[in-house]
Each structure stands twice: as structure tokens, then as C-alpha cells.
From TrEMBL:
The keyword Signal does not apply. InterPro entries: PemK-like, Plasmid_toxin/cell-grow_inhib. GO terms for molecular function: DNA binding. This is mRNA-degrading endonuclease. The keyword rRNA-binding does not apply. Keywords: Toxin-antitoxin system. It holds the Pfam family PemK_toxin. Belongs to the PemK/MazF family. It comes from Oceanobacillus indicireducens.
Length: 83
């Protein structure tokens, strides 16, 4: 499964990554964030399924980078249910 890394500083400095899963099954749920069509991965980011994982054990690789506006939208949606 593809994932969006939320905290790149944490990702770069250690072995933990804070991620949101990505799915190609678009259901138009309020916490989905659409990935732009011009990227290598298509679908939506599931911001309500935020988790941390050891990226070294999972062999995570960066495949593409979403525009900053997508990251901001993800963080805003995450913030609504964390606070």
C-alpha cells in the first residue's frame, strides 16, 4: 500500500515515519484528499487513518512528492480530529 509521509523531518532524522495510507478506491469521504492527476500515484490520501511506522523495517521508498497545497490540506483535515 502506498502512503503519504506527513513528517519528513522525523522521517529523515530517525526510523519512524508518520504516514497516511493512499487508496485508489475513492469514496468521497470527508477526510479523503485527492492526489493530483499528474503524479505517479493516483487516488486519495486517507487522513483519518494516520499512523506511525518504522520506515526501515517496512522498506519505505519515496516514489513522488505531492504539492505543498496537498500536504496543507491533509494537515488541516488531521487537525480537525486531533484537536
Amino acid at each position: 500500500m502506498n502512503r503519504l509521509v506527513i513528517d519528513l523531518q522525523l522521517f529523515n532524522s530517525g526510523k519512524l515515519a508518520v504516514v497516511c495510507p493512499i487508496t485508489s478506491q475513492i469514496k468521497n469521504y470527508p477526510f479523503e484528499v485527492k492526489i493530483p492527476d499528474d503524479l505517479k500515484i493516483n487516488g486519495v490520501i486517507l487522513t483519518d487513518q494516520l499512523r506511525s511506522l518504522d520506515w526501515r523495517l517496512r522498506n519505505l521508498k519515496i516514489v513522488d512528492k505531492v504539492p505543498e497545497v496537498v500536504v496543507v490540506e491533509c494537515l488541516e483535515k488531521i487537525n480537525t480530529f486531533i484537536n
